[in-house]
Design goal:
alpha/beta; two-stranded antiparallel sheet; nine-stranded mixed β-sheet; D-Maltodextrin-Binding Protein, domain 2
């Protein structure tokens, strides 16, 4: 083993010379000088006590001992490369890369993700956030959670939930808000990522347009829900995001009217990756928790 350690570098150079069929070409492939290659070959010959190359005009050729060693070294390095490739493939087979919007990650995915981790504790998860749920790019991800009507082509998809908007507030404010008309005087909390949500809700309640009252605009819906729970106003909420808050009493539905759209949220993946173990296992799990 000690001898192998000492000669492993020269053996790799020897293999490169044999594959490239020359010192200069091997030096170019290894990004070193021809002199450095020749020095490594001399070290290997001294270490083994064998002559591996002999002059043939201006070229060199393998001796009989060199031919035998080259064949076995080449096979050994091929097997080593295969082993390294297999190890890398196994690592990738345990990695799942997701892209989701911040609110969906915080309010819907993370509370459920413990179940997936419990089933697959050896899976490496990478969760990146995207600014908008209509970002259709899969680059750098195995799955993306998109918002739309589910008519994308050339992708595999699984439906999660549809748009269902309800107004929510802290329990202390609920008594003041009994009808849609009461919201015309309320402080409304707006998400920058879904600026049209309140307008959509008022239109579905037959109250066209937005009320001319004070409001607050925040970066995303998760911040709006927090502000609503703190009593700062009324947030328009995706129903799927606030079920736990409703059950715990942290938030209440201010007015019992739901605004629905034809759009929803979908897990999307490349068909070429659909059968890969991480993607397949994640899709199977997420269908069970919808």
């Amino acid at each position: 083993m000690q001898k192998l350690r000492a000669l492993l570098g020269p053996l790799r150079v020897f293999d490169a010379v044999c594959r490239a069929k020359g010192v200069s070409r091997a030096a170019e492939a290894l990004h070193v000088t021809p002199g450095a290659v020749s020095q490594q070959i001399k070290q290997l010959e001294c270490g083994l006590g064998l002559q591996l190359f002999q002059k043939s005009g201006r070229e060199i050729e393998l001796t009989a001992a060199g031919v035998q060693l080259a064949r076995r070294v080449s096979d050994a390095f091929d097997k080593l490369n295969d082993a390294l490739d297999d190890a890398a493939d196994r690592r990738l087979d345990k990695r799942l890369r997701l892209k989701v919007t911040p609110t969906l990650a915080i309010r819907w995915l993370m509370p459920r993700l413990g179940g997936f981790h419990a089933q697959h504790p050896d899976m490496d998860l990478e969760i990146a956030t995207i600014a908008r749920a209509d970002d259709i790019r899969l680059e750098g991800a195995d799955c993306v959670i998109r918002h739309g009507v589910g008519e994308w082509i050339d992708v595999e998809l699984d439906h999660l939930f549809d748009d269902e908007f309800v107004p929510v507030c802290a329990p202390s404010l609920a008594a003041q808000l009994q009808t849609p008309q009461n919201l015309l005087q309320a402080t409304l909390l707006h998400s920058m990522l879904r600026p049209e949500a309140w307008e959509l809700w008022f239109a579905s309640a037959d109250l066209g347009g937005l009320p001319r009252s004070r409001g607050m605009t925040l970066a995303n819906a998760a911040l709006c829900y927090q502000a609503a729970a703190d009593g700062l106003g009324v947030a328009i909420a995706q129903r799927a995001y606030i079920d736990d808050d409703i059950r715990s009493g942290r938030l209440v539905i201010a007015v019992d009217h739901v605004a629905r759209t034809e759009r929803g949220y979908y897990v999307v993946c490349d068909p070429l990756r659909a059968d890969a173990a991480p993607v397949r296992l994640f899709r199977e799990w997420i269908r069970s928790v919808r």
